[in-house]
Automatic annotation (TrEMBL):
The keyword Hydrolase applies. Transmembrane segments: none annotated. Its cofactor is Zn(2+). One of its GO terms (molecular function) is arylformamidase activity. InterPro entries: KFase/CYL (IPR007325), KFase_sf (IPR037175). It is an enzyme of class 3 (hydrolase). It comes from Desulfoscipio gibsoniae DSM 7213. Catalyzes the hydrolysis of N-formyl-L-kynurenine to L-kynurenine, the second step in the kynurenine pathway of tryptophan degradation. Pathway: Amino-acid degradation; L-tryptophan degradation via kynurenine pathway; L-kynurenine from L-tryptophan: step 2/2. One of its GO terms (biological process) is L-tryptophan catabolic process to kynurenine. Homodimer. This is Kynurenine formamidase.
Length: 219
């Protein structure tokens, strides 16, 4: 069984959206063995820093919160598509070249995975691509950027996906993953009333006979 860790490492100097200092995580020591019997730390970070899941409330007033998302939506078979040849955006015509079926959870592997700093010109999913995925009735989409869209007026991509009930997973690292089918495990922290949550995302590769290990998949 091969497991790929596709999560960003959380640390103060990690890439954050638009290099905004208020999005940088702060890890502070609460106690150590010089002033107590345990070592404890406190972390302060924006919910959308690093690898995370967006919930509809992020863009839709009154939208569902992260604790309301069924975990089966994020522990599921998925497909990784290679879109590294694209430089700017992923549109409907780009997605039409790939095998996308109703009920799929798809991950978009782009050139973003090869860039270790924040790129203001990162590859994103445009509104036509979002509409295409809506029409395909997928269940979720993940991308290797800290945002699934980039400076789009009205946040069209997010809203199209959320209104269609599509889960959004951002901040993936897919450099070491080839296109194909995997089991995605991306359970978010269970934070009541939040518009998203950090996640430790991994991919489990299929066994040779074309199935996932029985204890991890829906057998």
């Amino acid at each position: 069984m091969k497991i790929y860790d596709i999560s960003m490492i959380v640390h103060p100097d990690m890439p954050v959206y638009k290099n905004k200092n208020d999005k940088r995580p702060v890890l502070s020591r609460v106690s150590d063995f010089t002033n107590g019997s345990t070592y404890e730390s406190r972390i302060q970070m924006n919910i959308h820093t690093g690898t995370h899941v967006d919930a509809p409330l992020h863009m839709l007033p009154g939208g569902a919160t992260i604790d309301q998302i069924d975990l089966r939506r994020l522990i599921t078979p998925c497909k990784v598509f290679d879109l590294t040849a694209l430089n700017e955006k992923i549109s409907a015509s780009d997605l039409a070249k790939h095998d996308i079926k109703s009920g799929d959870f798809i991950l978009l592997r782009t050139r973003n995975s090869y860039i270790e700093t924040f790129d203001f010109n990162f590859t994103y999913l445009d509104s036509s691509g979002a509409a295409y995925l809506k029409d395909k009735s997928i269940t979720g989409v993940g991308i290797d950027a800290l945002g699934i869209e980039r400076d789009q007026p009205g946040h069209e991509t997010h809203k199209i996906l959320f209104e269609a009930g599509i889960v959004i997973l951002e901040g993936l690292r897919l450099k070491d993953v080839v296109k194909g089918k995997y089991l995605l495990i991306a359970a978010p922290l269970k934070i009541r009333g939040a518009e998203g949550a950090p996640v430790r995302a991994v991919l489990v590769q299929e066994e040779a006979r074309g199935r996932f290990p029985c204890f991890l998949a829906r057998c």
